[in-house]
Amino acid sequence: MSFTPPPYPYERLDVLKKLAAVHDGGPIDCSIGTPIDAPPQAVLEELAKGTGARGYPTSQGSPDFRTAAASWMQRRFGVTVSINDVAACIGTKEFVGTLAGYLHLRSPERDTVLYPAISYPTYAMGATLAGLRPVPVTVRDGRLDLESIDRDDVDRALVLWANSPSNPTGYLDDLEHVAAWGRRHGVPVASDECYAEFTWAGPPRSILEHGSDGVLALHSSSKRSNLAGIRAGFYAGDEELVNFLKSVRQHAGFMVPAPVQAAVAVAYNDDEHVARQRERYWSRLSLMSEALGEFGVHAPLPEGAFYLWCSKEGLDGWALAGEIAERSALVVSPGELYGEDGRNFVRLAVVQSDERLALAAARLRGE
Question: Do 241 and 349 belong together in one domain?
Fold first, then answer.
């Protein structure tokens, strides 16, 4: 039977946008984690120079790009990574969606992708697009319940995905435990860490703090520097895995445009703009958590990321999303979009302006 792609998750939200549209100013869309704040001016100026635009860029990324990424990891996580073990990707979603297929070329006897049961949909879709088995792993108290995985699925696993801080829940996982499990069972671990800069419960964390053998860390400029539109990220870690993926991706023609690489290198060499963005997101999270609480919604502050994972007794995610839209014009994502285990939750991304969020908060409070 041929493959028919399912509806794209966020295309299912039109019914909520109609409910929100009755308010003056229309919907306040907090359903997708699209940054709204300005990228650093120095990054935009570098991008405008068009450095390297005439020739083909290297697939693995320029030395400047990889050096900036490795230097940032040293500053942020205290880990030393050779630039030879760092490579560029065209935004991290592209990498998530293609990794399973490439790893299957490396280990054709394995056909299973393990991923958090409440998670970003592309982990599972990447397996499906490669003709492989997506198998969700139970999440308990925000952490992967690795002992719950069936032995047959462990033996067939190509990769285990971890995501910390989590999209959508905002929980932090125990990356040391995840890395150790992967090594013990001979399963590569891909750790999606694109929200690491927005870690609220302690310092930011990377799986590479616990060694690089058998693991990959994945990072994005989209969230860190409000650069989702230029599509650039990187992966780093296990030397053999990185070299294999660099080679396969080079053959496939995956290349981050050279002007984008130059601009992102500037972004990774600067931490001040990220500190300012952290302040913005924490302020917005605090505002909306309090306002939703006054509306009778359980919306605890997260351990990381810029999402609120919300629930209300007696309502599933779609019903709660409808209630929030009718009251405030906020459009949020029903938790079912992130897996069946999220069906009684909604996710709110604090990616609208302070003024728009303040308006929504006032409506939630009945002001």
Answer: no
Q: Both 284 and 189 in a single domain?
A: no
pLDDT at 7: 81
| 261 is a domain residue | yes
The dihedral over CA atoms of 256, 349, 122, 303, expressed in degrees to the nearest 10, equals: 100
Q: Which amino acid is at 203?
A: P
- Confidence at residue 12, expressed as pLDDT on a 0 to 100 scale: 84
Four-residue CA torsion sign, 321, 322, 325, 331: positive
Class of residue 44 by CB neighbours under 10 A (exposed 0-12, middle 13-18, buried 19+)? middle
Same domain assignment for residues 258 and 182: yes
Is 349 within a domain? yes
Handedness of CA 350, 343, 334, 228 (dihedral sign): positive
Minimum mean pLDDT range among 11-20, 30-39, 307-316, 347-356: 11-20
Contact at 8 Å (CB) between 156 and 182?
Answer: no
Q: Are 104 and 110 in contact (CB under 8 A)?
A: yes
Name 305's Cβ contacts closer than 8 Å, sequence gap at least 6: 165, 166, 167, 170, 195, 198
Q: What pLDDT score does 11 carry?
A: 82
Collapsing DSSP to helix, strand or coil, 238 comes out as coil
- State how far the Cα of 88 lies from the Cα of 94, in Å rounded to an integer: 11
Owning domain of residue 165? 41-268
Average pLDDT over residues 127-135: 97
Same domain? 305 vs 242: no
Rounded to a whole number, what is the distance in angstroms from the first to the last CA of the chain? 55
- The CA distance from 114 to 158, in Å, is 8
Structural domain total, the chain: 2
